[in-house]
Amino acid sequence: MDYHRSIRVFDAFPKTEPVNTVRSTKGSYSTILMGFFILFLIWVEIGGYVDGYIDRQFMLDRNIQRVLNINLDMLVATPCNYLHTNVKDITQDRFLAQEQLNFEGVNFFIPDYFRVNGDESQGSTLDLDEVLRESALAEFREKKSFTGGDAPACHIFGSIPVNKVHGFFHITGKGYGYRDRSIVPKEALNLTHVISEFSFGEFYPYMNNPLDFTARTTNEHIHIFNYYLDVVPTEYKKLGIVIDTTQYSMTLTENPGLRNVPGIFFNYQFEPIILSIEEKRISFVRFLVRLVTICGGIMLIAKWIFRTVDKLIRVVFGKQVANRGREKASSLL
Ligand SMILES: *[C@@H]1O[C@H](CO)[C@@H](O)[C@H](O)[C@H]1NC(C)=O
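Above: the input record for the complex with 2-acetamido-2-deoxy-beta-D-glucopyranose. Below: its predicted structure, written as tokens.
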């Protein structure tokens, strides 16, 4: 007898208790309900296991990559012949960006969906799945071209390799701030511009950056647009795929008055940290342990609820009702 009792303690399903054997409808309903509940939780857990979880971490950027690209695609309302483009950084390495980029004379226009003189600070860190979906890597046309230098506006596009240090990319009129063969008449300058791509690192055309699809207009010929870009290297990892990219935050000041060189300045600096966004999965063993723990917990709680309800019935309706089933049961035997 004692032996049986101790076994019963280990029995997870209280339905075997004599009190419950007969209130069978109630008992089996709750068993079925509990079964469904457990199945539901297992299903949720398996879903969570398959999907993994997103782990975001900042770490020191140990990447010794020294050079990366600025990818840009923009339109300036000044003829290409009058424009001077340049990259300068603290290593004093001066790339004549002119040689790295494509220039194409076009008419100036601002596409409808561009944000004009708006607030670009609404960029956010992309979702991991979004990145994987949109990480089609592209290369700008390799051959550098210069066409239509006299057209009213200039379409500038391409990638400029820059040192991964603080620096700036500058677009201005010929003869302003740099020694050029000619000086552009002030009246010919219009630094109104449209940016459809401005990014650092590998070029992923479908990833949105704060400057993408923005436009800035000015009614002054001598005007200064100063963009300050803080670049954070960002690494996305999922299922063995690693996407190395960057994101940046942007601040714009216009006409600071200190510099009298007109132009569009992109001042950039790289943060020494890297943001890693990775999809991780708990180990299978841990997953199993979790499942077992959850099921065990539910059973324990269910047992407790059954007992409490049972006690309540006894207290409220008296022993008679609680034992009614037993009499029926014995009469059946
Ligand atoms: C520059 O071009 C834009 C768009 O065509 C125009 O709105 C703006 O007034 C022009 N600015 C100057 C200084 O001519």
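Notes for the reader.
The chain has two domains: 23-51+282-322, 57-280.
Residues 23-51+282-322 form one domain.
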